[in-house]
Amino acid sequence: DVQLQASGGGLVQAGGSLTLSCTASGLTFSTLSAGWFRRTPKKERDFVASISSTGRSTWYEESVKGRFNISRDNNQKTHYLRMNNLKPEDTAVYYCVLDTAQIMSYEAERVDYWGKGTLVTVSS
Q: Are the CB atoms for 49 and 68 separated by under 8 Å?
């Protein structure tokens, strides 16, 4: 049974930081790319960041470049999203994801495995 358990969301003031974590079970984590999507109040699921199975390559949505950092620990079957200089427009439910494709699609419907999501609220 595949499970992705996300944690670390919460309420933070603009300019603050949060780190999201996602621990996987029921699959071979080290062979999968990992990433994060978010669902905004507009109800769209948007790509945020992804990392290859080895951790050597990362990709970011333009608006988070330079502020967010994605990383992973294959021994712990966990990947992370460090979010700095948060803005009110970053407010969303953040979903951790895993995919068999090494270059994760930016299209949510193409991604294989999803966690339940964790809410991040950034106040102005």
A: yes
Instruction: Strands of the chain (E only): list them.
Output: 3-7, 10-13, 18-25, 33-39, 45-51, 58-60, 68-73, 78-83, 92-99, 113-114, 118-123
First to last CA, the chain: 40
Instruction: Tell me the pLDDT tens digit for each residue of 44-58.
Output: 899 999 999 999 999
Of the candidates 97, 79, 90, the residue with the CA atom closest to the CA atom of residue 119: 90
Q: Strand pairing partners for 10? A: 120
Coil/strand/helix, residue 121 = strand
